[in-house]
Amino acid sequence: MAEHESLEFGKADFVLLDNVSMPEFMANLKLRFEKGRIYTYIGEVVVSVNPYRAMNIYSRDTVELYKGRELYERPPHLFAIADAAYKAMKRRNKDTCIVISGESGAGKTEASKYIMQYIAAITNPNQRAEVERVKNMLLKSNCVLEAFGNAKTNRNDNSSRFGKYMDINFDFKGDPIGGHISNYLLEKSRVIFQQNGERSFHSFYQLLKGAPDSLLRSLHIQKDPTAYSYIRVGGQMKSSINDGAEFRAVADAMKVIGFTGDEIQTVYKILATILHLGNLTFGVDGDTTLIENKKLVSVMRELLSTKEENVEKALLYRTVATGRDVIEKQHTEQEASYGRDALAKAMYERLFCWIVGRINDIIEVKNYDARVHGKNTVIGVLDIYGFEIFQNNSFEQFCINYCNEKLQQLFIQLVLKQEQEEYQREGIPWKHIDYFNNQIIVDLVEQQHKGIFSVLDEACMNVGKVTDEVFLQGLNGKLAKHAHFSSRKLSPTDKSLEFDRDFRLRHYAGDVVYSVVGFIDKNKDTLFQDFKRLLYNSSNPVLKVMWPEGKLSITEVTKRPLTAATLFKNSMISLVENLASKEPYYVRCVKPNDVKSPLLFEEERCRHQVEYLGLLENVRVRRAGFAYRQTYPRFLQRYKMISEFTWPNHDLGSDKDAVKRLLQGCGFDHDVAYGKTKVFVRTPRTLFSLEEQRAEMVQRIVLFLQKVWRGTLARMRYRRMRAALVILRAYRCYKVKSYIREVNRRFRNVRSMKDYGRQVKWPTPPKVLRKFEEALRSIYSRWWAWTLIKGLTPEETLQVRAKVASLEALKGQRADMGLQRTWEGNYLVGQKRDSPDTAASFALITSELQRKDKFMRVLFSCNVRKINRFHRAEDRAVLITDRHLYKMDPLKQYKPMKTLPLYNVTGVSVSPGKDQLVVFHTKDNRDLVVCLQGMVPANESRIGELVGTLLITVQIYHFLHFYNQLS
Known about the structure:
By secondary structure, the protein is α+β, with helices and mostly antiparallel strands. About 45% of the residues lie in helices and about 15% in strands. The radius of gyration is 57 Å and the shape is elongated.
């Protein structure tokens, strides 16, 4: 069964219809067409409805969806049937064929293109150049054959006016290695006549619209198609096909296939010659027939590479041999016109057959030895004209309809035979199916001595003047009692038939009235031998090859050539035998409307096509009581999740037992039959119920699998993360150890170094150890400092502490703090630097003050210059002890002028400049402003010493200020 589609699109397989009837069949076909589903199955037959619009369902992605899949695994598609034929050919080493049928405009040619496209896409996985070349030539041949064999009709802009059967040969690996094309019954009458609104073959218009001016001049033709009688008959010059672009595409395709430049030029010359022939007119001068426009004879002589007098003679005379005598009989005006038209038709037919033969010469399998390379297998693709009913049905249409009867007979026989064989193989009782057997109609046409073709051939062989009316009389005589034949003579009251002109056949597809006008001439297909000799004697080797009969001498006796009807009958018998020897696959094309609308579905018209294609009978035969059948393993694979006994795998004796257990558990055992290798389901409802249960279980299974898979993914992510963390931890440990080892190596001998390792460069730490490095540097700095100061005396230690305190307090505020020299502290006594004459006096006063104020030691003493509140400067001295600050007058033997307990000092401010201005702030706001600079050497700053001493003594760091405004 095709992949389960929503019922909004109808049934994907007509076999699954609840009731097999024409109304239900048509309703399902219409619904799928309106929903954009143009393909539907009948078992292994594809029904295709022409959508009349471009559809994005033939891309490379779509090819991949169907490649290697079974029919039921994907929605219905042409690619599915092509893949089935390819698999049967490759896996079972069987020759297969795909038969595409339907009326004109139903999409047969497009279907054959897509099938070829699919086969080309799935072959040659190794991209071998030779295989790619063969594939390219097979595809390009379509383009060339369409140009010369297709035409615009009232029903189809690209209608095939010939039957085409292509065999594609494959090697044992399944790669294409060549092919062969057979063509049937080219509608050559279209060369000289077209129905109103139709065109002749595309090739004429492509030449006129697409050829460069230089080529047209060499062919003596102009771009205007209306200038040529043969191709303006139908009055339709335009088409949806771009003639100019197609001309270039066809020329390129012919080059790719292997046509030489001279061969392509000859093709153009023949087309131009046919156009000129159509404009050739004849007149009468007494009893003599003349060519009125002789200039065209000269042109044709040049194009055909022959002599002008030979061309004129062949057009006006006929050479007849009577015994040993040879006479030239002049044509009447009517005979000359008939010969001209016959020559035009024959030249085009020979050209088309030569093109097909030339393609076959190039693409056929060469140098293939089955003993060495293995058996090559074949896929055949048949794209043949469809059954049609026109207002005036001619000889060609009679042959076409006979062809369809023949193929329909084969279709019914093979389908019925396949079904019967399958039922017998599986041991299922076969139910007889009533179907229309059109063997009686095939016999009516082709039976020896009694068939229409035989009567026609007999009429053509009669001596004397034979007319179409004589042929109709012969039909009336031999077929008067046949149930499927009638004429006006046999049914005098039937006014839809004309006397001596019409006969009616009751075809499988319906009643068709044929006009016998032209049957005799078309069957004889007479072409004067003079034309054959003319063209055989051309100096153009291509033309010479096309007309081998021309080498016969005038007096040489030959067998009567077979008639067109006999040749066509024989080709059809041969074709049917060829198809019957292969495993067939079918594409049945339906035309939804006559106006080429993508929206309109004409139900009555489609119903008629369904009838003559035998689609409903095909459904009945396929059903034969059972809507669905499948092999046990395949059935189990699709539905095993429904039963606990078969999911995920069964332990029963065989797949057949497992299927039985599954269907019994679902309650469907009464609606099925068990064959030897397949299970048969009777009603579609059972199948739909199985599909619904499967869809429900698939959803649960998917959720379960999602859960398990998500858990698996989470565990995988966790393991990866854990592994990453272990690696990261180990790496970090390695980096830490490496860093510590490096630090240890560099600082191992710092104790013995002169600077205790101060100049050693620290290694760059990893990011994780940056803070650790800072702490380590701090520890080292403290150790280095401790190492330096541990050998100092108490006095030196106190001075170092004062310098450190001063540095921290004034760092960045003053450039010079006197850190590089020894601080003496008591400058008025020590070394007697400031006032050596009065040092004794100052020492005496200091001793008296110590006894009086009980201080422990002198911290700082210095001459200063005091600034009073009147902004006057006076020389003074400052003495700072561990308890008081004294202002003294050096002029009065350092007599104390003011005594400030240190606890009354709230802060000290210093200037940032080079001066040594100091302000001592007091609680009573009577600040003392002094300048240490006055009597001190300019390069000796004592501000740092003063601040540091006070900081470590009276702990006033927190109220230290800087007055930047002080000068």
